[in-house]
């Protein structure tokens, strides 16, 4: 009997052999480079203006609320309009936001409320950019390579995180350049993304029939709810990202408030997460469309929650750096595979809306940041980070128990206690 060939390096980068997807990928590289820099700069600026964890949480709260309200409409727009047009407008908004923040900092007129406006602006852009980009990737590569394309998209995001946050943090702490100059550089990089998007093909939506957008959103929710495996996947992703991923919002407080280090270390800790993500992304890209995708997703989600808990106990910044490397690897594996499984389950006409519902987990991340910040001021940041990880781990355990039970019902078998461990369940 012939054994299946092991995934090769060629398999890992198969989607990039499609010229149009390669353009989309490079557009993402520049976009994420810009956004990652702004992400760090916003946290540093919020901390310097207030020195309060609750203020950090508030910056992400308005970001999350914006995404919560707008992202469902972003899914509808991705299904009803040309993806290129949606990408241009949303990337343009990211560009304008970076230039505006750079200007107010350079002119020394920046105030905390301006950071809130910038957060709203970026939340609005993400709400449309995310669903349109993933839906366009599916359109360009086809379902057979969708997992590979999504994983490579995350590689472009995490690859920029290896250096973009560290560079942004270093520039912010350099008096000659400063936070304002770092914001302006981020705007220029965002402009490079816009140029790449202009090179993409303009493909009208398959069904551009005008409809009530609220009815379209409701259709998307009903569609996800009608497929139990998809519903469980979306809900689990929401809880895991909403709580577990919130550790990134408090990196400035952890670095500067607990470990007493400067802005450069804020960027370096963010880079640590990216290093783990990049290490995982290349082998994962070759496996993302394989039969073990669900098993790897569950193990990764559980590992993510546990390592976030461990981060809360880190005795030194060097130990924290190593822990965050591991967190980055688990995060990437969980995100890419949960998105792949969701989109391969969904039919073509619903992919934008399904992706928008998956992306709502980041709205939850922003919304949870404010109460978690307030909690940190009461019980301490370390204890709060441990709670974040515990909730994320618990969500994965519950997800796996429900999946195992559903598989047993379908096969007519009774669920035995041994079946509640991590193993592959129903196939998509």
- The CATH architecture: Up-down Bundle
Query: Pairing-aware structural class of the strands and helices?
Result: mainly alpha
**How many domains make up the 3D coordinates?**
1
Find the count of extended strands (DSSP E, 2+ residues).
Answer: 0
Q: Which spans have pLDDT < 50 for at least 5 consecutive residues?
A: 1-5, 414-428
Contiguous helical run count: 16
CATH H level: which superfamily? MFS general substrate transporter like domains
Largest sheet: none
CATH fold-type name? Growth Hormone, Chain: A
Describe it.
The protein is mainly alpha-helical and 428 residues long. It has one domain: Up-down Bundle (Growth Hormone, Chain: A), CATH 1.20.1250.20. 79% of the residues lie in helices and 0% in strands. The relative contact order is 0.16. Residues 1-5 and 414-428 have low confidence and may be disordered.
Fill in the keyword field for this structure.
Growth Hormone, Chain: A, disordered N terminus, disordered C terminus, mainly alpha, globular, 428 residues
How would you summarize what this structure contains?
By secondary structure, the chain is an all-alpha fold. Helices cover 79% and strands 0% of the residues. It is built from 16 helices and no strands.
